[in-house]
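Q: Could you predict the 3D structure of Antitoxin?
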Amino acid sequence: MKVMTATEASRSFAAVLDDAEHGETIVVTRGGKQIAVIGPAPTAPGRMVKAFLARSAGTLDADFGTDVAVAREVIEDEMRATWPDA
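A: Sure. Here are the predicted structure tokens for Antitoxin:
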């Protein structure tokens, strides 16, 4: 994982995108604080989830949607907790 200032990222944005395209994660800082994370875009998982849901139609319990929403909230809360206060 690379760490670079916003100024550095701005001046070499094409290189930052090239690094992300090749699997590198770049943390961008300003004033010593993390402000962004640039990394590879996710691939197949969205398609895989959609295919799973299509295959599972009618076999998931009635609370499945609620379970997914709760899991998503937990993940979002954990992600927010990893960032320093702005």
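Q: Anything worth pointing out?
A: The chain has two domains: 1-41, 42-86.
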